[in-house]
Amino acid sequence: MAYEVHTTEHTITVAAAPEAVFGLVERAEDWPHVFPPSLHVECLERSGDEERLRIWATANGEVKSWTSRRTLDREGLRIRFRQEVSQDPVAAMGGEWIIEALPDGGSRVRLLHDFRAVGDLERNVGWILEAIDRNSGAELAALESAALRTGTDEAPYTFEDSVRIDAPAQEVRDFLHDAGLWQERLPHVARVLLKEDTPDVQHLEMDTRTPDGSTHTTASVRICLPEGRITYKQLQTPALMSVHTGEWTVRETPSGCVAVSRHTVVVNAAAVTKVLGASATTADARTFIRDVLGGNSTITMRHAKEYAERRARTEPVSPAEYASVQQFYARQMRLLDAGEGDAWADTFTEDGAFDQSSFSEPVRGRAAIAAAVRERPAAPAGTVRRHWLGLPAAWRFPDGSVRTGYDALVVSTATGSAPVIRLSTSCQDVLVADGDGWLVRHRYVGHDGQ
């Protein structure tokens, strides 16, 4: 039985160049920062002008998800879309974005939909028409706002923070996923309510304390994705933000994992002076938001680190093992100071890795590590360099390795001059037993100030 095809059209005039408007519609991954109903978009496939997208969005207050194919006509400034798999009460849906140039340099945007309703039932048709009308109106109005703020201080801006963790990634992912426990686990969370009526779609309402002692209520939808990724969009934001989206990711490393918190924010310019004072600017608001969101995220990740590392450190090293670790580091640093690069590289496993925050990629393999040491610039004539390593903390992990954390300084002393600290670092190692001694399987050196 063929259901009736229903069609709609919504239009708006935008005081921006057609190409700029088209770009906003084309970049589907940015839709959550542009369109209020959009929660998250994943590009599943992309080839030339063809795309396949997984989309999460609100419709009449409900979270819906579907997969769509898009065909981009960049010269004609048109984008056709068709849902592959629709969600009840939608049986099928497609449409087209059409951006037309106006004589004054602006644009007319037309958003067309065609759809069939499940069972062709009147209530389903009504539900879909209401959702299309509400979402299309909100999207077109937001598209105009986004086009006008492009290139200004009110454009979306993104920042991120990260924390290295000496524990399996899954422990950290579990901590971030179980947000319903955050009131017990996080000092800046005063109240939390988590609902997950649909698997992997979480509704999170939370009261968060700010440094000035005030409390802000936020409401978010969190999409839980493979490999522990969690993306979210705040549906209820503090006054200073008109848009806030974010993402938690946890990346495996040889020594544990790295947790990353990423935020994208649009400042609510109308609220800046009311919230921050009469002389405040949008730039001040960006700094304030960066400090508050980044601070809270970092607190969350540090508590996740404490939680995961506590669970992973099931066996403290014995006093004898700790003494042997100290002996190992004393010998290793002296080899480096003496310029014995090949011997220093031999203190790594054959497949060992050496990584620094200043590296784009780790150096992998003992031979490559030895070559890197040989290639590093020598100290100037008459200058002595020493490596000082602070007392390491050490834990035995379930896989039998020993994980250590320590601080290290590089001190340079020129003839007739006072010593100068050349580098201050925080380091994490994975050590494996080698007879009565140790070898480094993985080392990460984080430079302070980077």
TrEMBL record:
Q: According to the lineage, what is the superkingdom?
A: Bacteria
For this UniProt entry, which residues form the secretion signal? none
Q: Which organism encodes this protein?
A: Streptomyces griseoruber
CDD domains membership: NTF2_like (cd00531), OtcD1_ARO-CYC_like (cd08861)
Q: Write down the InterPro entries for this protein, in alphabetical order.
A: NTF2-like_dom_sf, Polyketide_cyclase/dehydratase, SnoaL-like, START-like_dom_sf
Please report the name of this protein according to its UniProt entry.
SnoaL-like domain-containing protein
Per UniProt, residues of the SnoaL-like domain are 321-443
